[in-house]
Amino acid sequence: MVLEGEERDRLYAEQSAIIPSFGEYQAKTSRVIPVVALNKLDLSVSGERNTMIGRQLIAHHDDLRGALASVRAEIDAALNGATPSVDVSTFDLGAQLRGHCLRFCYDLQMHHTREDGSFTAFEQQFPELRPAISRLREEHHAVERALAGLEELIVRRLSGDASDAERLRAELDRTVAGLEAHFAYEEESLLPAVNVTRAR
């Protein structure tokens, strides 16, 4: 939340006292430097907010599934000899696949980083979820290792020929199977606690 007025000024002054360069920077500019307050997630406050969190989890999973579908479509196009809708004279299959896959890997890592931060709030409000959350944390580490392997294949070994696309598709299929199982377990474990069900 962006702070304003007296609260913003007080906190900026406190920060400037701790790190003088903040005050020095403010003195050199006419703009008011924003101060943002970060609040811990509290699942005990609002059932409506909890429902929003559950819906957001579903939306993130659906976005990641959509990104995976795009990566798969790129690979399938390469395997079928088709060139995706880009200028053929500048198309580089290896670069195209690397770009899609690495964007997906980054998005998934960010998603898990945010989730890991919210797990503590879930554990505090719903202690019965601790075993499931422990498993989810372990799965996040396993997914991280799988993504690192996929990323290494993409960055170091992908030259852009059809055999590379086949290897990448096989590795992606293996990774996706693990991700789908992870997403399903996460939704089964967390969504009931925040009174959200996935529409099937």
UniProtKB/TrEMBL annotation:
* Coiled coil residues, start to end: 133-182
Tell me yes or no: is rRNA-binding among this UniProt entry's keywords: no
Which Pfam families has this protein been placed in?
Answer: Hemerythrin (PF01814)
Q: What is this protein called?
A: Enzyme
Where do the Hemerythrin-like domain residues begin and end?
56-193
**Entry keywords, A to Z:** Coiled coil, Oxidoreductase
Q: Which domain of life is it from?
A: Bacteria
Which GO MF terms does the UniProt record name?
oxidoreductase activity
- The kind of enzyme this is, by top-level EC class, is oxidoreductase
- What species is given as this protein's source? Actinacidiphila cocklensis
Its EC number(s): 1.1.98.-
